Amino acid sequence: MSNSDSDNESDSLSNQLEFSHRPEWSDVVPIEQDDGLNPVVRIAYSDRFRETFDYIRACMKTNEMSERTLDLTKTACQLNPANYTVWYYRRKILYHLKSDLNEELAFIGQMIKENPKNYQVWEHRRLIVERSGHTSNELSFIASILQNDSKNYHAWQYRQWLLKTYSLWSNELNYIDQLLQEDIRNNSAWNQRYFVIAHTTGFKDDIIERELDYVEKHIQSCPDNESSWNYLRGIVRFRSTNLNDQRIWNFCQNLYENHFQKDDFNNRQWRFLLGYMIELLIDDDRDEKREENKRMITDLCEKLALQIDSIRKKYWRYIQEQYGTK
User: Fold this and answer.
1) Catalytic one among 61, 92, 98, 117?
2) What are the distances in angstroms from CA 258 to CA 117, 225, 232?
3) What PROSITE patterns does the entry give (predicted)?
């Protein structure tokens, strides 16, 4: 939402006639907030805020569900979008009046644009969609929010709920691929790729090989990306014994011999490669490879501790002591 839109919304609230000056509210006696006789910290509410919530308390006490209380909750939600009780009250009124929930989706959509990291606005939208079953525009709406912040946790959580509940998986991998083309380091998109496969095809042998091709290509183009290395770790654990167990090691060894050793050894972009190679060597339980693996672990730890990842020097020294040559 642009600053001008936000300012217009603020102006709209400030220009509203006070509820106490509206004839249609003359029958309601507002209930002030009870902070006790000696509040430790008295919150400096605005007059608009205080009056709105005084009327909300009065209407909730009588359980009034009318068009005027629906309008009242709208103002209250705009003043404090994090107030769970007001959103709950608003839903009760909407359902009681059989209001047009498409209009409510438009309203909550605007509220989300203004407050994209507020849990309550996302929860309200989820419950309205669940009630109405209107899902046709939801994925594109979420995409518009993620376009402004591709790592918005609430948007991703809502998207995952939507995909699972309504089986809207058909184009999700294409969408994720688009996000990764825009930003290969988008850890949320890598997480989403794992989520989609886990809930659709599962990590069967052919899917694993396809995903290995995919992630290896992305690692080669950007080796200094922890998200893609973590994705590799995640899918490798699903490999069955009938697959080529050397594939992952060969991939890493090729990067090490043909890229790392020809590059500047001080280049930090290789720290994830060397760290993962150490993990593979530690997991290799072949007796005939034990001493060779220890020597290589020692060599890799030396490079990491002294040249590539010196900020974690003590950690690599510890790994060397535990798994390298004595």
Assistant:
1) 117
2) 44, 19, 20
3) PFTA
